[in-house]
Design a protein that fits this description.
Elements lengths: L9 E4 L1 H4 L6 H13 L2 H4 L3 E3 L26 H10 L3 E7 L15 H11 L3 E5 L9 H13 L6 E5 L16 E3 L8 H12 L10 E3 L30 H13 L4 E3 L8 H7 L2 H7 L8 E2 L8 E6 L5 E7 L5 E5 L11 E6 L4 E7 L2 E5 L3 E9 L1
Helix pairs in contact: 5-6, 7-8, 8-9, 8-10
Length: 382
């Protein structure tokens, strides 16, 4: 039987932009249409996921979860059908507690019943958050219960565990999860992107085909708007101003190098051409989706504070990422001596961010990296 997530899942999730208050079936349907029309589906982004607040506060008379009648008057089965008709996959959210974090009905004690309902609706991915649970609750047990329920539901449903800590790498795969969140929610600012990425770098060995470390959904294209920018819950003076396109490009480069699930979080209907070029970079996506499935790992720094990642690829190439998280341009040294290659090996380099052949090198190379930026090179040993 083929792995359900042999490669990092790709798609879109509503939360980072729409949060708890602005999501509805019209937004989701228009987003699905936009993903097709703007080329995102063909680039590999296939999951369309609705996060918290799709469900009513209470269950129906049969004890089933039910859609919020105002936000989703057509129901979730109709929404799933609409998404599937466009060659996309349907993702949904649930919580392991009595209530979700937004105080909607949780799945505690209803795991099998809810899993059968998700299958009936045609759900392809379930993001399972922790939610409000009793103190001292055994978190692994709650996730195992839903994982088992999904396996018995009669439909293949990708299980995405969301507990937001790196310790889940020790047990989340055993629940049947195909991806697992490693940290709290990302926000639309450079410092958050870097912190979340560096957190993921600490647990690289736990990721691979069938089970992926999930730094979080991307904030590329929020541009200081939406929930993950702080709109609606931060003080006005604290709301994130958004990132530069260089920072968004580095964000995408890092997620691709980390073999992270690529889940867009912006309003796809309003995607700027510059951001579409970042998110649809086929050379970076190929690195992310490489069949070997190795998460990029950090190399020993050649100078103080350098962050360099190496990601071996199935055809024998190695992808390298040079990250400059600082505020000034930096000259960084790229060397392949720590990757099993010899310093004297002749290597051809390609800049996959800018789609430029860099020529052939021996011993390594110096690369200038702009502030708050990343450069990614695909290296081929000759």
């Amino acid at each position: 039987m083929a792995l359900l997530a042999a490669k990092p899942p790709m798609g879109w999730n509503a939360w980072n932009y729409f949060g708890p208050g602005k999501i509805n079936e019209t937004v989701v349907r228009e987003t699905a249409d936009a993903m097709v029309e703007q080329g995102f589906r063909d680039a590999g982004y296939v999951y369309v996921s609705v996060d918290d607040c799709w469900m009513a506060v209470e269950r129906d008379a049969n004890g089933d979860l039910q859609a919020d009648p105002v936000k989703f008057p057509s129901g979730m089965k109709a929404l799933g059908d609409y998404i599937h008709e466009r060659g996309l996959k349907f993702g949904l959210y649930a919580g392991a507690g009595v209530l979700t974090y937004a105080n909607r009905a949780g799945s505690y004690g209803y795991e099998r019943q809810d899993a059968r309902k998700f299958a009936e609706w045609g759900v392809d991915l379930l993001k399972y958050d922790f939610g409000y649970v009793a103190p001292g609750t055994n978190a692994p047990e709650l996730f195992r219960r839903m994982g088992q329920a999904l396996r018995e539901s009669g439909r293949e449903i990708l299980f995405s565990g969301c507990l937001g800590r790196t310790s889940v790498t020790e047990w989340m795969r055993s629940t049947g999860a195909s991806m697992w969140r490693l940290s709290g929610d990302i926000t639309d600012q450079w410092s958050s992107i870097v912190n979340v990425a560096k957190n993921a770098m600490t647990v690289a060995p736990f990721s691979g085909p069938g089970g992926w470390n999930d730094p979080d959904m991307m904030v590329i294209g929020l541009d200081g708007e939406g929930w993950a920018s702080g709109v609606g819950w931060m003080k006005e003076e604290d709301v994130c101003k958004g990132c530069t396109d260089n920072e968004y490009s580095a964000h995408f480069s890092l997620w691709c190098m980390l073999a992270a699930p690529l889940l867009m979080g912006h309003d796809v209907r309003k995607t700027r051409p510059e951001l579409a070029a970042i998110l649809q970079n086929a050379e970076l996506i190929a690195i992310n989706q490489d069949e070997l499935g190795i998460q990029g790992y950090t190399l020993p720094p050649m100078s103080n504070g350098d962050t360099i990642l190496a990601k071996p690829l199935k055809n024998g190439d190695i992808a390298f990422c040079l990250l400059n998280e600082g505020d000034f341009p930096k000259k960084m040294i790229l060397s392949w001596q720590y990757c099993g290659w010899e310093m004297t090996d002749r290597v051809r380099l390609r800049d996959v961010v800018n789609h430029t052949d860099m020529g052939e090198y021996v011993h390594g190379m110096y690369a200038f990296v702009e502030p708050h930026s990343a450069r990614v090179f695909r290296a081929t040993r000759l």
